[in-house]
Write a structure and sequence with these properties.
The protein has 21 helices and twelve strands. With about 575 residues, it is of the alpha/beta class. It has two domains: about 240 residues, no CATH class; about 190 residues, Phosphatidylinositol (PI) phosphodiesterase (TIM Barrel, Alpha-Beta Barrel), CATH 3.20.20. The strands form two sheets. Strands 1, 2, 3, 4, 5, 6, 7, 8 and 9 form a nine-stranded mixed beta sheet that branches. A three-stranded antiparallel beta sheet has the order 10-11-12, with no helix packed on it. It is elongated, with a radius of gyration of 35 Å. Its main location: membrane. It is found in: Membrane.
Protein backbone atom coordinates (compact mmCIF):
# COMPACT_ATOMS: atom_id res chain seq x y z
CA UNK A 1 0.00 0.00 0.00
CA UNK A 2 1.28 3.50 -0.85
CA UNK A 3 1.45 6.23 1.80
CA UNK A 4 -0.88 9.03 0.90
CA UNK A 5 -0.14 12.75 0.98
CA UNK A 6 -2.93 15.29 1.44
CA UNK A 7 -4.56 15.92 -1.88
CA UNK A 8 -4.31 19.63 -2.75
CA UNK A 9 -6.85 21.28 -4.99
CA UNK A 10 -5.57 24.40 -6.74
CA UNK A 11 -8.14 26.98 -7.74
CA UNK A 12 -7.65 29.91 -10.06
CA UNK A 13 -6.98 32.99 -7.92
CA UNK A 14 -7.55 35.75 -10.44
CA UNK A 15 -7.74 38.57 -7.89
CA UNK A 16 -4.57 37.46 -6.08
CA UNK A 17 -2.77 37.16 -9.41
CA UNK A 18 -3.92 40.65 -10.34
CA UNK A 19 -2.74 42.14 -7.03
CA UNK A 20 0.65 40.43 -6.89
CA UNK A 21 1.21 40.80 -10.63
CA UNK A 22 0.79 44.55 -10.78
CA UNK A 23 2.52 45.24 -7.46
CA UNK A 24 5.48 42.88 -7.79
CA UNK A 25 5.23 41.40 -11.32
CA UNK A 26 4.51 37.96 -9.78
CA UNK A 27 1.79 36.60 -12.01
CA UNK A 28 2.42 32.87 -11.44
CA UNK A 29 1.49 30.90 -8.33
CA UNK A 30 5.00 29.57 -7.76
CA UNK A 31 6.33 33.14 -7.70
CA UNK A 32 4.19 34.09 -4.72
CA UNK A 33 4.86 33.42 -1.07
CA UNK A 34 3.00 33.74 2.21
CA UNK A 35 6.16 34.07 4.25
CA UNK A 36 6.84 37.22 6.25
CA UNK A 37 8.05 40.15 4.15
CA UNK A 38 11.75 40.92 4.28
CA UNK A 39 13.00 43.94 6.22
CA UNK A 40 13.97 45.61 2.95
CA UNK A 41 10.45 45.27 1.59
CA UNK A 42 9.05 46.61 4.86
CA UNK A 43 11.26 49.69 4.40
CA UNK A 44 9.86 50.16 0.91
CA UNK A 45 6.34 49.87 2.32
CA UNK A 46 7.23 52.61 4.83
CA UNK A 47 8.57 54.79 1.97
CA UNK A 48 5.34 54.16 0.05
CA UNK A 49 3.21 55.19 3.04
CA UNK A 50 5.36 58.30 3.60
CA UNK A 51 5.00 59.27 -0.06
CA UNK A 52 1.24 58.86 0.17
CA UNK A 53 0.97 61.06 3.26
CA UNK A 54 3.20 63.75 1.72
CA UNK A 55 1.19 63.73 -1.51
CA UNK A 56 -2.05 63.83 0.46
CA UNK A 57 -0.80 66.95 2.23
CA UNK A 58 0.47 68.41 -1.08
CA UNK A 59 -2.84 67.73 -2.87
CA UNK A 60 -4.87 69.27 -0.04
CA UNK A 61 -2.64 72.35 -0.09
CA UNK A 62 -3.25 72.98 -3.79
CA UNK A 63 -6.94 72.25 -3.38
CA UNK A 64 -7.42 75.05 -0.86
CA UNK A 65 -4.78 77.30 -2.50
CA UNK A 66 -7.06 77.74 -5.52
CA UNK A 67 -8.19 80.87 -3.73
CA UNK A 68 -4.77 82.41 -4.44
CA UNK A 69 -3.75 81.01 -7.82
CA UNK A 70 -3.63 84.53 -9.24
CA UNK A 71 -1.26 85.60 -6.45
CA UNK A 72 0.98 82.60 -7.12
CA UNK A 73 1.26 83.33 -10.84
CA UNK A 74 1.97 86.98 -10.05
CA UNK A 75 4.76 85.97 -7.63
CA UNK A 76 6.31 83.77 -10.31
CA UNK A 77 6.00 86.62 -12.82
CA UNK A 78 7.85 89.02 -10.52
CA UNK A 79 10.73 86.53 -10.37
CA UNK A 80 10.85 85.32 -13.96
CA UNK A 81 9.48 88.30 -15.87
CA UNK A 82 7.18 86.03 -17.89
CA UNK A 83 3.49 85.53 -17.24
CA UNK A 84 2.44 81.87 -17.36
CA UNK A 85 -0.15 79.83 -15.54
CA UNK A 86 2.30 77.77 -13.50
CA UNK A 87 -0.48 76.00 -11.62
CA UNK A 88 -1.41 73.80 -14.61
CA UNK A 89 1.75 71.63 -14.67
CA UNK A 90 1.77 71.49 -10.86
CA UNK A 91 -1.82 70.28 -10.67
CA UNK A 92 -1.31 67.77 -13.50
CA UNK A 93 1.82 66.23 -11.96
CA UNK A 94 0.24 66.17 -8.50
CA UNK A 95 -2.85 64.37 -9.79
CA UNK A 96 -0.80 61.75 -11.64
CA UNK A 97 1.60 61.20 -8.73
CA UNK A 98 -1.13 60.97 -6.09
CA UNK A 99 -3.17 58.52 -8.18
CA UNK A 100 -0.13 56.32 -8.80
CA UNK A 101 1.02 56.21 -5.17
CA UNK A 102 -2.54 55.65 -3.90
CA UNK A 103 -3.00 52.71 -6.29
CA UNK A 104 0.26 51.09 -5.15
CA UNK A 105 -0.65 51.60 -1.49
CA UNK A 106 -4.03 49.93 -2.03
CA UNK A 107 -2.29 46.96 -3.67
CA UNK A 108 0.16 46.76 -0.73
CA UNK A 109 -2.73 46.71 1.76
CA UNK A 110 -4.39 43.94 -0.23
CA UNK A 111 -1.12 41.98 0.02
CA UNK A 112 -1.21 42.32 3.79
CA UNK A 113 -4.89 41.39 4.08
CA UNK A 114 -4.43 38.33 1.81
CA UNK A 115 -1.31 37.19 3.67
CA UNK A 116 0.93 37.64 0.64
CA UNK A 117 4.57 38.58 0.92
CA UNK A 118 5.38 42.19 -0.11
CA UNK A 119 7.73 42.39 -3.05
CA UNK A 120 7.56 45.75 -4.84
CA UNK A 121 8.71 45.56 -8.46
CA UNK A 122 11.89 47.50 -9.22
CA UNK A 123 10.11 49.71 -11.78
CA UNK A 124 7.64 50.79 -9.11
CA UNK A 125 10.51 51.47 -6.70
CA UNK A 126 11.97 53.91 -9.19
CA UNK A 127 8.52 55.47 -9.70
CA UNK A 128 7.93 55.86 -5.96
CA UNK A 129 11.34 57.48 -5.43
CA UNK A 130 10.85 59.81 -8.41
CA UNK A 131 7.41 60.86 -7.15
CA UNK A 132 8.70 61.41 -3.60
CA UNK A 133 11.68 63.49 -4.69
CA UNK A 134 9.56 65.54 -7.10
CA UNK A 135 7.06 66.32 -4.36
CA UNK A 136 9.79 67.28 -1.90
CA UNK A 137 11.36 69.61 -4.46
CA UNK A 138 7.94 71.15 -5.08
CA UNK A 139 7.41 71.79 -1.37
CA UNK A 140 10.84 73.42 -1.09
CA UNK A 141 10.19 75.61 -4.17
CA UNK A 142 6.80 76.78 -2.93
CA UNK A 143 8.28 77.56 0.47
CA UNK A 144 10.85 79.74 -1.27
CA UNK A 145 8.53 81.50 -3.73
CA UNK A 146 5.26 81.51 -1.84
CA UNK A 147 6.12 80.77 1.78
CA UNK A 148 3.30 82.87 3.23
CA UNK A 149 0.71 80.64 1.57
CA UNK A 150 1.16 77.85 4.11
CA UNK A 151 -1.12 79.88 6.38
CA UNK A 152 -4.09 78.91 4.23
CA UNK A 153 -3.86 75.36 5.58
CA UNK A 154 -4.81 76.48 9.09
CA UNK A 155 -7.46 78.86 7.74
CA UNK A 156 -9.04 76.10 5.64
CA UNK A 157 -9.35 73.80 8.65
CA UNK A 158 -11.97 76.20 10.02
CA UNK A 159 -14.17 74.96 7.18
CA UNK A 160 -12.95 71.40 6.51
CA UNK A 161 -11.91 70.09 9.95
CA UNK A 162 -15.26 68.41 10.82
CA UNK A 163 -15.35 66.59 7.49
CA UNK A 164 -11.67 65.64 7.54
CA UNK A 165 -12.23 64.27 11.03
CA UNK A 166 -15.01 61.94 9.82
CA UNK A 167 -12.90 60.79 6.87
CA UNK A 168 -9.84 60.14 9.02
CA UNK A 169 -11.94 58.29 11.59
CA UNK A 170 -13.43 56.03 8.90
CA UNK A 171 -9.97 55.32 7.48
CA UNK A 172 -8.36 54.47 10.82
CA UNK A 173 -11.36 52.32 11.72
CA UNK A 174 -10.99 50.34 8.49
CA UNK A 175 -7.26 49.87 9.10
CA UNK A 176 -8.14 48.11 12.37
CA UNK A 177 -8.77 44.94 10.31
CA UNK A 178 -5.10 44.81 9.31
CA UNK A 179 -3.83 45.86 12.73
CA UNK A 180 -5.97 43.28 14.51
CA UNK A 181 -4.85 40.53 12.13
CA UNK A 182 -1.23 41.37 12.90
CA UNK A 183 -1.29 41.82 16.68
CA UNK A 184 -3.62 38.99 17.81
CA UNK A 185 -1.25 36.23 16.71
CA UNK A 186 -0.30 33.65 19.31
CA UNK A 187 3.43 34.38 19.16
CA UNK A 188 3.67 38.05 20.05
CA UNK A 189 6.77 40.22 20.05
CA UNK A 190 7.66 43.74 21.13
CA UNK A 191 7.07 45.17 17.67
CA UNK A 192 3.46 43.92 17.65
CA UNK A 193 2.87 45.57 21.03
CA UNK A 194 4.36 48.82 19.72
CA UNK A 195 2.11 48.72 16.64
CA UNK A 196 -0.94 48.19 18.87
CA UNK A 197 0.02 51.08 21.17
CA UNK A 198 0.61 53.44 18.24
CA UNK A 199 -2.76 52.50 16.74
CA UNK A 200 -4.56 53.05 20.06
CA UNK A 201 -2.90 56.47 20.50
CA UNK A 202 -3.89 57.55 16.98
CA UNK A 203 -7.45 56.32 17.50
CA UNK A 204 -7.86 58.11 20.83
CA UNK A 205 -6.38 61.29 19.34
CA UNK A 206 -8.98 61.22 16.59
CA UNK A 207 -11.75 60.63 19.10
CA UNK A 208 -10.76 63.76 21.02
CA UNK A 209 -9.63 65.92 18.05
CA UNK A 210 -12.88 67.97 17.80
CA UNK A 211 -12.03 69.53 21.16
CA UNK A 212 -9.34 71.55 19.33
CA UNK A 213 -11.51 72.68 16.40
CA UNK A 214 -12.37 76.35 15.88
CA UNK A 215 -15.10 76.48 13.26
CA UNK A 216 -17.03 79.78 12.92
CA UNK A 217 -19.88 78.01 11.11
CA UNK A 218 -20.65 75.85 14.15
CA UNK A 219 -23.11 78.37 15.52
CA UNK A 220 -26.78 79.13 16.00
CA UNK A 221 -28.22 80.11 12.63
CA UNK A 222 -30.15 82.93 14.29
CA UNK A 223 -26.81 84.56 15.18
CA UNK A 224 -25.69 84.69 11.54
CA UNK A 225 -24.73 88.22 10.43
CA UNK A 226 -25.85 89.78 7.11
CA UNK A 227 -24.13 88.66 3.93
CA UNK A 228 -20.72 90.37 3.50
CA UNK A 229 -20.51 93.00 0.78
CA UNK A 230 -18.30 92.07 -2.18
CA UNK A 231 -15.63 94.48 -3.39
CA UNK A 232 -14.49 93.99 -6.98
CA UNK A 233 -10.72 93.72 -6.59
CA UNK A 234 -9.34 95.33 -9.75
CA UNK A 235 -12.85 94.83 -11.10
CA UNK A 236 -13.58 91.30 -12.25
CA UNK A 237 -10.11 90.29 -13.52
CA UNK A 238 -11.20 86.74 -14.38
CA UNK A 239 -13.72 88.07 -16.90
CA UNK A 240 -11.88 91.11 -18.28
CA UNK A 241 -8.41 92.72 -18.09
CA UNK A 242 -7.72 93.92 -14.55
CA UNK A 243 -8.00 97.63 -13.69
CA UNK A 244 -9.87 98.50 -16.88
CA UNK A 245 -13.29 100.07 -17.40
CA UNK A 246 -14.68 96.80 -18.78
CA UNK A 247 -13.45 94.90 -15.72
CA UNK A 248 -15.09 97.34 -13.29
CA UNK A 249 -18.32 97.23 -15.26
CA UNK A 250 -18.37 93.44 -15.11
CA UNK A 251 -17.79 93.54 -11.35
CA UNK A 252 -20.76 95.84 -10.86
CA UNK A 253 -22.89 93.63 -13.09
CA UNK A 254 -22.08 90.65 -10.83
CA UNK A 255 -23.17 92.33 -7.63
CA UNK A 256 -20.06 94.10 -6.38
CA UNK A 257 -21.02 96.89 -3.98
CA UNK A 258 -17.63 98.57 -4.19
CA UNK A 259 -14.57 98.74 -6.44
CA UNK A 260 -10.92 98.35 -5.52
CA UNK A 261 -8.01 99.55 -7.66
CA UNK A 262 -4.23 100.00 -7.60
CA UNK A 263 -3.26 103.61 -8.22
CA UNK A 264 0.05 104.81 -9.70
CA UNK A 265 1.00 108.46 -10.33
CA UNK A 266 2.37 109.33 -13.76
CA UNK A 267 5.36 111.60 -14.24
CA UNK A 268 3.03 114.50 -15.08
CA UNK A 269 0.80 113.93 -12.03
CA UNK A 270 -2.11 111.91 -13.48
CA UNK A 271 -3.27 109.02 -11.24
CA UNK A 272 -3.85 105.88 -13.31
CA UNK A 273 -4.58 102.23 -12.48
CA UNK A 274 -1.71 99.73 -12.61
CA UNK A 275 -0.81 96.88 -10.30
CA UNK A 276 2.68 96.02 -11.57
CA UNK A 277 5.81 98.10 -11.28
CA UNK A 278 6.22 98.01 -15.07
CA UNK A 279 3.77 98.04 -17.98
CA UNK A 280 5.05 94.82 -19.60
CA UNK A 281 2.44 92.32 -18.43
CA UNK A 282 -0.81 94.18 -19.03
CA UNK A 283 -0.01 96.46 -21.99
CA UNK A 284 1.78 96.36 -25.35
CA UNK A 285 4.61 98.61 -24.14
CA UNK A 286 7.16 96.15 -25.55
CA UNK A 287 5.87 96.98 -29.05
CA UNK A 288 5.21 100.70 -28.66
CA UNK A 289 8.20 101.60 -26.46
CA UNK A 290 10.53 98.56 -26.66
CA UNK A 291 13.49 100.41 -25.15
CA UNK A 292 11.45 101.42 -22.08
CA UNK A 293 9.52 98.22 -21.38
CA UNK A 294 11.42 97.55 -18.13
CA UNK A 295 11.10 101.13 -16.92
CA UNK A 296 8.95 101.97 -13.90
CA UNK A 297 5.38 102.72 -15.00
CA UNK A 298 5.31 105.95 -13.00
CA UNK A 299 8.02 107.48 -15.21
CA UNK A 300 5.73 107.52 -18.27
CA UNK A 301 3.58 110.58 -18.92
CA UNK A 302 -0.16 110.23 -19.34
CA UNK A 303 -0.11 110.73 -23.12
CA UNK A 304 2.32 107.82 -23.51
CA UNK A 305 0.34 105.63 -21.12
CA UNK A 306 -2.94 106.38 -22.87
CA UNK A 307 -1.47 105.27 -26.21
CA UNK A 308 -0.97 101.71 -24.95
CA UNK A 309 -3.41 98.85 -25.44
CA UNK A 310 -4.43 97.26 -22.12
CA UNK A 311 -6.73 94.48 -23.34
CA UNK A 312 -5.02 92.51 -26.08
CA UNK A 313 -2.78 90.66 -23.61
CA UNK A 314 -5.87 89.21 -21.94
CA UNK A 315 -7.14 87.77 -25.23
CA UNK A 316 -3.73 86.34 -26.12
CA UNK A 317 -2.82 84.74 -22.80
CA UNK A 318 -6.31 83.82 -21.45
CA UNK A 319 -4.87 83.90 -17.90
CA UNK A 320 -7.95 82.44 -16.17
CA UNK A 321 -9.19 80.06 -18.90
CA UNK A 322 -12.39 82.10 -19.23
CA UNK A 323 -12.02 83.36 -22.79
CA UNK A 324 -14.44 80.81 -24.21
CA UNK A 325 -17.21 82.24 -22.02
CA UNK A 326 -16.93 85.66 -23.66
CA UNK A 327 -19.09 86.74 -26.57
CA UNK A 328 -17.68 88.26 -29.76
CA UNK A 329 -18.91 91.66 -28.58
CA UNK A 330 -17.10 91.28 -25.25
CA UNK A 331 -13.88 90.35 -27.03
CA UNK A 332 -14.17 93.35 -29.27
CA UNK A 333 -14.55 95.70 -26.31
CA UNK A 334 -11.65 94.07 -24.49
CA UNK A 335 -9.33 94.35 -27.47
CA UNK A 336 -9.82 98.13 -27.54
CA UNK A 337 -9.20 98.80 -23.85
CA UNK A 338 -6.66 101.40 -22.79
CA UNK A 339 -5.13 102.08 -19.38
CA UNK A 340 -7.83 103.42 -17.06
CA UNK A 341 -7.36 106.67 -15.16
CA UNK A 342 -8.46 107.07 -11.56
CA UNK A 343 -11.00 109.71 -12.61
CA UNK A 344 -12.72 107.28 -15.00
CA UNK A 345 -12.96 104.59 -12.36
CA UNK A 346 -14.36 106.95 -9.70
CA UNK A 347 -16.94 108.37 -12.11
CA UNK A 348 -18.09 104.85 -12.85
CA UNK A 349 -18.40 104.14 -9.10
CA UNK A 350 -20.34 107.39 -8.59
CA UNK A 351 -22.82 106.53 -11.36
CA UNK A 352 -23.36 103.07 -9.83
CA UNK A 353 -23.76 104.60 -6.34
CA UNK A 354 -20.93 102.40 -5.07
CA UNK A 355 -17.79 103.19 -3.09
CA UNK A 356 -14.09 102.86 -3.93
CA UNK A 357 -11.07 101.39 -2.16
CA UNK A 358 -7.73 102.72 -3.44
CA UNK A 359 -4.33 101.11 -2.95
CA UNK A 360 -1.96 103.96 -3.78
CA UNK A 361 1.58 103.18 -4.88
CA UNK A 362 3.75 106.02 -3.68
CA UNK A 363 6.24 107.21 -6.34
CA UNK A 364 9.95 106.62 -5.69
CA UNK A 365 12.01 109.40 -4.11
CA UNK A 366 13.47 110.52 -7.43
CA UNK A 367 10.01 110.87 -9.00
CA UNK A 368 8.86 114.47 -9.76
CA UNK A 369 5.57 113.85 -7.90
CA UNK A 370 7.08 112.08 -4.87
CA UNK A 371 5.93 114.87 -2.54
CA UNK A 372 2.64 115.80 -4.15
CA UNK A 373 1.19 112.36 -4.88
CA UNK A 374 -1.60 112.77 -2.32
CA UNK A 375 -2.61 116.13 -3.76
CA UNK A 376 -2.77 114.57 -7.23
CA UNK A 377 -5.01 111.84 -5.82
CA UNK A 378 -7.27 114.35 -4.04
CA UNK A 379 -7.57 116.35 -7.24
CA UNK A 380 -8.73 113.23 -9.11
CA UNK A 381 -11.32 112.45 -6.43
CA UNK A 382 -12.72 115.95 -6.57
CA UNK A 383 -12.76 115.98 -10.35
CA UNK A 384 -14.67 112.68 -10.49
CA UNK A 385 -17.52 114.17 -8.46
CA UNK A 386 -17.80 111.26 -6.02
CA UNK A 387 -18.55 111.87 -2.35
CA UNK A 388 -15.34 111.76 -0.35
CA UNK A 389 -17.06 109.66 2.31
CA UNK A 390 -17.36 106.86 -0.24
CA UNK A 391 -13.64 106.81 -0.99
CA UNK A 392 -11.22 104.84 1.21
CA UNK A 393 -7.53 104.67 0.60
CA UNK A 394 -4.35 103.16 1.89
CA UNK A 395 -1.60 103.66 3.05
CA UNK A 396 -2.54 105.46 6.23
CA UNK A 397 -0.09 108.37 5.90
CA UNK A 398 -0.35 112.15 5.89
CA UNK A 399 -3.44 111.83 8.04
CA UNK A 400 -3.39 115.51 8.94
CA UNK A 401 -3.35 116.65 5.32
CA UNK A 402 -5.96 114.23 4.00
CA UNK A 403 -9.28 115.35 5.39
CA UNK A 404 -12.71 114.12 4.48
CA UNK A 405 -11.48 110.83 3.03
CA UNK A 406 -11.66 107.52 4.81
CA UNK A 407 -8.26 105.95 5.40
CA UNK A 408 -7.51 102.33 6.13
CA UNK A 409 -4.41 100.28 6.78
CA UNK A 410 -3.20 96.83 5.78
CA UNK A 411 -1.47 96.36 9.13
CA UNK A 412 -2.92 94.24 11.89
CA UNK A 413 -3.10 96.67 14.81
CA UNK A 414 -4.35 96.50 18.35
CA UNK A 415 -7.53 98.30 19.24
CA UNK A 416 -5.52 100.86 21.24
CA UNK A 417 -3.28 101.63 18.26
CA UNK A 418 -6.29 101.96 15.97
CA UNK A 419 -7.87 104.52 18.29
CA UNK A 420 -4.58 106.38 18.57
CA UNK A 421 -4.30 106.71 14.78
CA UNK A 422 -7.94 107.60 14.38
CA UNK A 423 -8.60 104.75 11.95
CA UNK A 424 -12.10 103.34 11.60
CA UNK A 425 -11.41 100.45 9.20
CA UNK A 426 -8.85 97.74 8.48
CA UNK A 427 -8.08 95.90 5.26
CA UNK A 428 -6.48 92.61 6.25
CA UNK A 429 -5.25 89.52 4.49
CA UNK A 430 -7.41 86.54 5.42
CA UNK A 431 -4.43 84.83 7.11
CA UNK A 432 -4.23 87.72 9.60
CA UNK A 433 -7.93 87.91 10.38
CA UNK A 434 -8.76 85.26 12.97
CA UNK A 435 -12.29 84.74 14.20
CA UNK A 436 -11.35 86.12 17.62
CA UNK A 437 -9.72 89.24 16.16
CA UNK A 438 -12.67 89.97 13.91
CA UNK A 439 -15.11 89.82 16.80
CA UNK A 440 -12.89 92.13 18.86
CA UNK A 441 -12.60 94.69 16.05
CA UNK A 442 -16.33 94.69 15.37
CA UNK A 443 -17.08 95.05 19.08
CA UNK A 444 -15.00 98.26 19.04
CA UNK A 445 -16.74 99.65 15.91
CA UNK A 446 -13.78 98.96 13.60
CA UNK A 447 -14.85 97.89 10.11
CA UNK A 448 -12.89 94.96 8.69
CA UNK A 449 -12.41 94.12 5.01
CA UNK A 450 -10.70 90.80 4.22
CA UNK A 451 -8.84 90.02 1.00
CA UNK A 452 -8.46 88.09 -1.29
CA UNK A 453 -11.59 85.97 -1.04
CA UNK A 454 -12.26 84.00 -4.23
CA UNK A 455 -13.59 80.62 -3.06
CA UNK A 456 -17.03 79.91 -1.55
CA UNK A 457 -15.58 78.02 1.45
CA UNK A 458 -13.50 81.03 2.52
CA UNK A 459 -16.39 83.42 1.91
CA UNK A 460 -18.60 81.18 4.07
CA UNK A 461 -16.34 81.09 7.13
CA UNK A 462 -15.82 84.87 6.95
CA UNK A 463 -19.57 85.29 6.69
CA UNK A 464 -20.02 83.18 9.82
CA UNK A 465 -17.31 85.26 11.53
CA UNK A 466 -19.34 88.43 10.90
CA UNK A 467 -16.98 90.17 8.42
CA UNK A 468 -18.82 93.15 6.86
CA UNK A 469 -17.05 93.05 3.47
CA UNK A 470 -14.56 91.04 1.42
CA UNK A 471 -12.37 91.96 -1.53
CA UNK A 472 -12.52 89.43 -4.36
CA UNK A 473 -11.07 88.74 -7.80
CA UNK A 474 -14.12 86.57 -8.51
CA UNK A 475 -17.35 88.46 -7.69
CA UNK A 476 -19.10 86.28 -10.28
CA UNK A 477 -18.32 83.23 -8.10
CA UNK A 478 -19.28 84.69 -4.73
CA UNK A 479 -22.50 86.03 -6.19
CA UNK A 480 -23.69 82.41 -6.40
CA UNK A 481 -23.26 81.86 -2.63
CA UNK A 482 -26.58 82.92 -1.10
CA UNK A 483 -25.87 81.15 2.18
CA UNK A 484 -22.83 79.67 3.95
CA UNK A 485 -21.84 76.30 2.48
CA UNK A 486 -22.58 74.65 5.79
CA UNK A 487 -23.97 75.85 9.08
CA UNK A 488 -24.52 73.68 12.13
CA UNK A 489 -25.46 74.24 15.74
CA UNK A 490 -23.08 73.19 18.49
CA UNK A 491 -25.50 70.55 19.79
CA UNK A 492 -25.94 69.00 16.36
CA UNK A 493 -22.20 68.77 15.83
CA UNK A 494 -21.66 67.29 19.30
CA UNK A 495 -24.21 64.59 18.47
CA UNK A 496 -22.47 63.74 15.18
CA UNK A 497 -19.05 63.74 16.85
CA UNK A 498 -20.00 61.49 19.77
CA UNK A 499 -22.05 59.13 17.60
CA UNK A 500 -19.24 58.67 15.08
CA UNK A 501 -16.77 57.98 17.89
CA UNK A 502 -19.04 55.36 19.48
CA UNK A 503 -19.73 53.66 16.15
CA UNK A 504 -16.00 53.57 15.39
CA UNK A 505 -15.22 52.13 18.83
CA UNK A 506 -17.86 49.41 18.42
CA UNK A 507 -16.56 48.46 14.96
CA UNK A 508 -12.92 48.35 16.09
CA UNK A 509 -13.80 46.23 19.13
CA UNK A 510 -15.83 43.84 16.96
CA UNK A 511 -13.03 43.53 14.42
CA UNK A 512 -10.45 42.70 17.08
CA UNK A 513 -12.73 40.07 18.65
CA UNK A 514 -13.50 38.50 15.26
CA UNK A 515 -9.86 38.42 14.21
CA UNK A 516 -8.88 36.78 17.49
CA UNK A 517 -11.58 34.13 17.08
CA UNK A 518 -10.70 33.52 13.42
CA UNK A 519 -6.95 33.19 13.95
CA UNK A 520 -7.30 31.03 17.08
CA UNK A 521 -9.65 28.73 15.16
CA UNK A 522 -7.15 28.38 12.32
CA UNK A 523 -4.34 27.57 14.74
CA UNK A 524 -6.39 24.78 16.39
CA UNK A 525 -7.15 22.94 13.11
CA UNK A 526 -5.07 20.18 11.51
CA UNK A 527 -3.94 21.44 8.11
CA UNK A 528 -4.17 17.90 6.62
CA UNK A 529 -7.75 17.57 7.76
CA UNK A 530 -8.55 20.96 6.25
CA UNK A 531 -7.14 19.87 2.91
CA UNK A 532 -8.97 16.53 2.86
CA UNK A 533 -12.21 18.15 3.98
CA UNK A 534 -11.92 20.65 1.17
CA UNK A 535 -11.55 17.78 -1.31
CA UNK A 536 -14.45 15.87 0.18
CA UNK A 537 -16.75 18.86 -0.29
CA UNK A 538 -15.82 19.16 -3.94
CA UNK A 539 -17.54 16.63 -6.14
CA UNK A 540 -17.16 18.45 -9.40
CA UNK A 541 -15.74 16.86 -12.52
CA UNK A 542 -12.56 18.96 -12.20
CA UNK A 543 -11.68 17.36 -8.86
CA UNK A 544 -12.31 13.83 -10.16
CA UNK A 545 -10.11 14.47 -13.15
CA UNK A 546 -7.37 15.76 -10.88
CA UNK A 547 -7.62 12.64 -8.69
CA UNK A 548 -7.27 10.31 -11.65
CA UNK A 549 -4.31 12.27 -13.03
CA UNK A 550 -2.51 12.02 -9.69
CA UNK A 551 -3.26 8.28 -9.37
CA UNK A 552 -2.17 7.26 -12.83
CA UNK A 553 0.92 9.42 -12.50
CA UNK A 554 1.88 7.29 -9.49
CA UNK A 555 1.14 4.10 -11.42
CA UNK A 556 3.32 5.15 -14.31
CA UNK A 557 6.16 5.88 -11.90
CA UNK A 558 6.59 2.26 -10.83
CA UNK A 559 3.44 0.76 -9.32
CA UNK A 560 2.64 -2.81 -10.34
CA UNK A 561 -0.72 -3.74 -11.80
CA UNK A 562 -1.74 -5.49 -8.61
CA UNK A 563 -0.95 -2.62 -6.30
CA UNK A 564 -3.78 -0.50 -5.18
CA UNK A 565 -4.13 3.08 -4.08
CA UNK A 566 -6.69 4.16 -1.61
CA UNK A 567 -7.98 7.61 -0.90
CA UNK A 568 -10.01 7.96 2.22
CA UNK A 569 -11.75 11.25 2.66
CA UNK A 570 -13.85 11.84 5.70
CA UNK A 571 -17.09 10.55 4.15
CA UNK A 572 -15.89 7.23 2.81
CA UNK A 573 -13.14 5.23 1.17
CA UNK A 574 -12.47 4.81 -2.52
CA UNK A 575 -9.99 2.32 -3.92
CA UNK A 576 -8.23 2.61 -7.23
CA UNK A 577 -6.48 -0.20 -9.01
CA UNK A 578 -4.60 -0.19 -12.26
CA UNK A 579 -7.68 -1.49 -13.92
CA UNK A 580 -10.11 1.10 -12.66
CA UNK A 581 -12.01 2.28 -9.63
CA UNK A 582 -13.67 0.17 -6.94
CA UNK A 583 -15.74 1.24 -3.97
Amino acid sequence: MVKHQPLQVYEKQIFVSFVTGIYGCRWKRYQRSQDNSSRWECIWFFILCSSFLLLLFWSYFWLVAQNDFNEFNWSVYNRSGEWRDETIPILASTTVGFSYITFLLILALFHISLGQQLNLYWVHKIGVLATLLTTISGVVSVDDIWGDEWDILLVSLQSTAPFLHIGALATVTAISWLVAGYVVRRNRNNFQVMVLLIYIIILLSLYLAPLTFTCPCIMDRHSLKPRPDIIGRRGAPMLAPENTVVSFNRALQHGASSLEADVTISVDGVPFLMRDRTLRRTTDVSKVFPARQFEDASFFNWTEIRSLNAGQWFLESDPYWTLETLTARDRGRISNQTVCSLVEMLRLAARANSSALLNIHRPPAEHPRSRSWFMDTLWAVQKAGISQKRVTWTPDTDRGRVRGLQQTTNEKLSVEEIRKRGITSLTLHYSKASNKDIKEYLANNVTVTVYPVNEPWLYSILWCSGVPSVSSDAPQVLRKVPYPIWLMSQNAYNFIWITSDLVSLAIVTGIFCFQKWRISGMQNCNPEQIMLSAVARRSSQDVNIMKEKLIFSELNNGLSSTEELSLCPENGCERYSHGGLRH
